[in-house]
């Protein structure tokens, strides 16, 4: 029997996780085509990725809305059809039983971590899962001020045990829980998570595979596709201005200047890495409620070419952010499960194509990232097959 | 003393060749930066490419306007500054002496080919050039009807010797002359040229290096950069509509439905190769005189993503086509001279990044083409250096 | 009791008529707001327009698909919600009884006209309607070759009575029927209709009110809004290029070069009238099936300003054409009924704001048209009220 | 002999005033066509506007760069040609003699006002001008905090006489000087100027004609052209997002958040007036130095139409802001001189078409403003002619 894999979402009842969950069940039931899943591309046909109907969904959230109700509200906004929700309603209802409220009743942050880690371990045991991949898809949080506990295991332990302190932001609590539960981890938001040196060290010591950070879905994807064209042709980019319009929950979250700061920093990092630090790159995110979950992004790129001539490019990208991101979340579950099966640990740098700010890599050019990703998946797939054959021996 | 290389332009007094010539002299004199030249990128710093001030310009044209006058008219249209024309006026005037009218006074097409080949050989001898690279940058010509002489060396010889026949279109006459003169050849237009099997065979038999076809400068470049993004992310492109607006000489030429046909076919070939033959791809080229030599291209791309959601991308690209193309023409002179120095012959498939319709390759994805190009130039450079050392040794 | 008015659609089962019919019933039942209806604007609050629930729908078509089925297919394409169709399903089913197949079984075209006129008269009698307004919303037809019968009543009578001739195109047959039935007429397409001098004379002799031609809904509306800005500011427009992408039935119809010719001529007439005949104005309509009924139009406008400086404007308009047009169709029914009540006949020039090619007017500037329209409706409303009071007196 | 008129620019050596001055002389000498001047439109052919070669230029500035040098730097940026600067160099050099440094050496602000008023009066006397029109085209200044002296003539007098206070911002000092000199006044920036009630009262008491505020040249012009289209068609605008990119001096000034605040408020006022206060309208101005004086503005408009369907419009406007504004500055000189000749005083509400935030009017729809403007100029022209005839009689 094929090993089953768990997908554990932090923010499991949010737009993104719900879209991923609806899509997973729709694909498993044959009610939708795997469009948008990179792991469904032909080049991976021979890779022993977990089958979609062998993925079990669980997760944490701070809200209690039933998945089917959340899915229905997304359908009302045009994300997918009502019929699709109906087709997977039973799966969603069953999955509600595997979702847990984040329990902050314990006096210390260590208690919170213990509770979350226990939830994950219990999920693994109940379903007999070979691997659990935790994917953080919760809302972007503000950057925390620096703290000694971020840099020392001992200071961290003391702080976590101190009922008067709440030193870790939510994304780091979740990451600590994943490490403690021995789960693989993907950070799909620009929040703190494993950016804390102390947690990065824990993750490496625990031998888990992890990947991040901040899903590269729309405008930033486009930028890391286009920027290498200018450099290959030796055209000097002088400015790259961008405006993002979106409504929905993300629009409201990102209207908060503090929350948006980490997002903007993350969005521009790849751009500067590709076309230079002196490129003028104003960037805005505006909350425009009537646009709902469709994000519209306008970029204006100005470059200098041969003999000082001007080259101008404008792009307008328009898409549901959640349906761009959801298949990537499923991809990450599959490939981190593959990495785990191959015994890999630490930051998987070859997954950089999924992220605005890739851990373990400073390559941002999307074509280069894609080539590295494809080669790694194929290579890792061969290793896993070999190991299976040896073990089946 | 470093070997000098000849750049022989078919259409030497046109906008593109004039821009390339002005730019070459401006670079050689330090009056402009090599922006837009791929061969000026850092990764080629160690490759023994011919120095820009070791390139001598000659060529054929059917017009007699002095280069400096043509350059002044381009400057008036904003392509580059009057000051730049002044800075290289003496070079342009001197170059006029190396340009030849295409002489069609002979009774047969073989006479025309002989005359052109003699012009090229004379140019090489007078300047003591190690290599001449012929670059066809003349106006796009209509596709000729098929003819037996296109497929048989014997039939071709008979036709060329028959004073009542004019079987070859102008681009093929020029290509035959380049072959006869032993020059390398780059086809920067979508005209017939070495697409005739009989001429392709001649070129291969003659051992010349050649590359083509149809310079990939603006909209098509952008398309072959963007299309792989959609496939990498498993987004299904359904339609890719395009409209090109331009004035200038190209605008007028391409307003001719017959001439534009070969252009449109060439432009869409890469797109269909990358995103599938069933993509709906209407494409227009409109002559809009007031826009002058600035080409503005609008593309509208519609794709389907996860769970049937819609992804839409619009791009508006605006640039002087000639200043995009001119540095590539200089690049082709340098890299075909390098290939010749390395003893390579036949279609150089690794130069596909320069062309809409690459000879010897069916790779259209620009990032893949770029990687192949960079590796080939570096590799060939090493071979040339080794050969030089052996020969010096 | 308020007088009831009939809306008789030529093409009653097409996308536009179906959308107008669904919308009319939705508004009458309070299931939708009157967004998009100009007659619902505040400035008309005191005008005695027919109430929406006093409009009865009938019409001709060559297809037999039930209205509710057609409405459901439009809802599937996203035009409006399934719930809206359900809300008015009973109304649609009842309306099916008032729709007639176009009967071409008679031997002569006069027989066809008689049959259609009888259908309209019967509809008026059965429902006790004070007025019937015929609105031609059928597919665009090719321009017919000129014919003597187009210019002489006598020649027309002979031709219509001759069983070997089919001299009138379908839109003119419908117009002749409307005239014969004494109905008011609005021509919402660019087809022949009352452009034939002989029919125009008949319409005037019959004393019917009529208005046309070719609904101004999207790109052309935008153009007649923008062009006066350039002239008011004395900016010289040099080129105005346009590309329209659409799928659905209209996309397929307009992919026919013959059918599109009348459309393109009609679209550009207003533009040239506003900014001059020497403006370069290439215009394309492309059939892009995956876009469905959403029309996307890109315009690129280039103008010269002070001291020869360049002004460039690009617009991208995206909307369901049918939902732009449908409320205008309802407006036309209401205001032509008002005109009839006021005893007006002939071309109502003040309705030019509805049309690309306004009958009786050469004003294309939308603001001027709007001012004339508003004043005319208010003035005519006062006349009708006065007449009612006198008659009630 | 025709009366001559003075144009007195506050900020006379800035980009806008220099462009207007170069253009005025180029037009007077027949070296350029009057494109962009509304007063050159045919409908004003019979109006006794001052001839362009009867306008004398003077002004204040805080800089001392010679006009010809400033003009040359604008030509280098592409605003107009070097040849044009040469054609008017003698005029520019002569005009330098009529420009005055703003003299702040006096101990009180009343001294500064006296000095500036004396400069203006001296200019009028030296040149024998019938009228002087002061046009404030200086940089946008931050909004001042409110002050009692803004509301009481007595408090203002005390404050101006107090050497320890600098209660008026620079634009108000200039306005006070214009009033004191009996000059007409146009406020082309969003700075304080006659917005102070106490100065407005002074201007009215002095009987000068004045008009403002904040030139409507690009994006805002477009918005007040487009917004009435949506309301005429009863389409409900939900959001109108805008991004402006520009370099040059204006880009740097507007990068200052304080300075930009008055600009943004002014830009959005008309929009909200036209489409409602609840429209979501994020608006950004970014300093992008490499774009120089070309302003590029992208707007994204989302509206709801019939049956809840979506209408989306994007516009990209690109133009030299100074060449859009400069002809309007010349227009204002001509029409305020006309108003003065007709004995009109106070806010000339019919000049609202020139301004983002029109004094004396709450009409923002550009077509309505244009109609009022044209009628007023024609009417005023008739009055001036009549007066001339009476006086000549």
Secondary structure blueprint with pairings:
Four copies of one chain form a homotetramer.
Chain A: E1 5-10, H1 15-28, E2 55-61, H2 67-76, H3 82-87, H4 89-96, E3 99-101, H5 109-127, E4 131-136, H6 153-161, H7 170-181, E5 184-187, H8 197-206, E6 209-212, H9 219-232, E7 236-246, H10 248-254, H11 257-275, E8 283-287, E9 294-304, E10 310-320, H12 321-341, E11 346-347, H13 366-392
Parallel strand pairs in A: 1-2, 1-4, 2-3, 4-5, 5-6, 6-11, 7-8
Antiparallel strand pairs in A: 7-9, 9-10
Largest interface, chains and sizes: A-B, 56 and 56 residues
- Number of DSSP helical runs of chain A: 13
* Beta-strand residue percentage of chain A: 15-25%
CATH class of the largest domain in chain A: Alpha Beta
Q: Within the CATH hierarchy, at the fold level, what is the topology of the largest domain in chain A?
A: Rossmann fold
Per CATH, the architecture of the largest domain in chain A is: 3-Layer(aba) Sandwich
The secondary-structure class of chain A comes to alpha/beta
* Tally of DSSP β-strands of chain A: 11
Sum up the overall morphology of chain A in one term: globular
The H/E string of chain A reads EHEHHHEHEHHEHEHEHHEEEHEH
Radius of gyration of chain A: 21 Å
Low-confidence stretches of chain A: none
| Biggest sheet: strand arrangement of chain A | 3-2-1-4-5-6-11
Task: Tell me, rounded to a whole number, the average pLDDT of chain A.
Answer: 93
CATH superfamily grouping of the largest domain in chain A = NAD(P)-binding Rossmann-like Domain
Number of domains of chain A: 2
